[in-house]
Amino acid sequence: MNRESIWSALNPYLEDLGYSLVQIILQIKKEPDLCIMIEHKKTLGLSLYECEKLSSGIQQLLKEKKLLTDEQILEISSPGVERPLVTPDHYRRYIGSRILLGIQGNKGQKYEGILQNVLGSGIVLALDQDGILSIEWSSIRFCKLVHKFETEKETKG
């Protein structure tokens, strides 16, 4: 079982239902558990009702394709406020948003800033220290939105 096989099996199924596949997480123990993050194409969220509704169809599809066993735990979830950005389309949708980015190799280097642009070769990130960073797709280890909760003091100005 691998992420690519699961993605290929689920993506058309979810697209037909009006949902987008966001991320697949395999947590490998004795038997790998599987977490699938999904969002509705219009609302960009996923309710508890939708998770329940989608769960049985996804489970049946994955079992038919021998991508899930009875011993594995399947979790269907919303990507949440600090959702991961995985595909180029995800990045394009969130241009102008604050992100946290982890770089491959580079001693676990992380950068936070505003996503400025998405190019064929990667992304452009405006750092808080007035710098601009261009990052190739192959260098990105992870990326997620950063949500800053305003305190009462900040909102009063």
Automatic annotation (TrEMBL):
Required for maturation of 30S ribosomal subunits. Keywords: Cytoplasm, Ribosome biogenesis. InterPro entries: Ribosome_maturation_RimP, RimP_C, RimP_C_sf, RimP_N, RimP_N_sf. Belongs to the RimP family. One of its GO terms (biological process) is translation. This is Ribosome maturation factor RimP. It comes from the Bacteria.
